[in-house]
Amino acid sequence: MADDCLFCKMASGEIKPDILYEDDEILAFSDINPQAPVHFLVVPKRHITTLNDLEAEHANLVGKLYLAAKRVADEKGVAQGGYRTVMNCNTDAGQTVWHIHLHVLGGRTFTWPPG
Ligand code: AMP
Ligand code: ZN
């Protein structure tokens, strides 16, 4: 666990988000500032600061992020209509929490390309 990392504190149970899915390695919870009718985050419990810090040893874990995303999207009723997944990397992309997280947004349509 990294010091003063919000998502590490959620992973350890020190801070309790609105949990949608949890297993030994993964936590999914509602975003506190939703940008769509459905907006949740999927995070690894182990601390990885940004996408730039991913190593080959994390490949299975990243796959599990998407499996959890798909599962919760289905439970939230947006799987058929569609949803967007986004992982922001560093400040140019708008990353503000320094522990990787997959955004999953659904329940409305999205433009492409993004602004
Ligand atoms: P990013 O800007 O990609 O780093 O995304 C960080 C996300 O974390 C934003 O969508 C925030 O709304 C969300 N967030 C920040 N604090 C919390 C919290 N306490 N519980 C749930 N989501 C949070
Ligand atoms: Zn962390």
Task: Annotate the secondary structure layout.
Layout: H1 6-12, E1 19-22, E2 26-30, E3 38-44, H2 59-75, E4 83-86, E5 102-106
Antiparallel strand pairs: 1-2, 2-3, 3-5, 4-5
The chain binds adenosine monophosphate and zinc ion.
Residues 2, 5, 7-8, 47, 99 line the site of zinc ion.
Give structural attributes.
alpha+beta, binds zinc ion, HIT family, subunit A, about 20% helix, binds adenosine monophosphate, 5-stranded antiparallel sheet, about 120 residues
Count of domain modules:
1
Binned, the helix content reads 10-25%
Mean pLDDT: 97
Which homologous superfamily in CATH is the superfamily?
HIT-like
Q: Briefly note the structural class of the backbone.
A: alpha+beta
How do the helices and strands follow one another from N- to C-terminus? HEEEHEE
For the biggest sheet, the summary is:
5 strands, antiparallel
CATH top level assignment = Alpha Beta
Ligand kinds: adenosine monophosphate, zinc ion
> Outline, from the CA principal axes?
globular
Strand order of the largest sheet: 1-2-3-5-4
How many helical elements?
2
Low-confidence region ranges: none
Please indicate the percent range of residues in DSSP E strands (runs of 2 or more).
Answer: 15-25%
Rg (C-alpha, Å): 14 Å
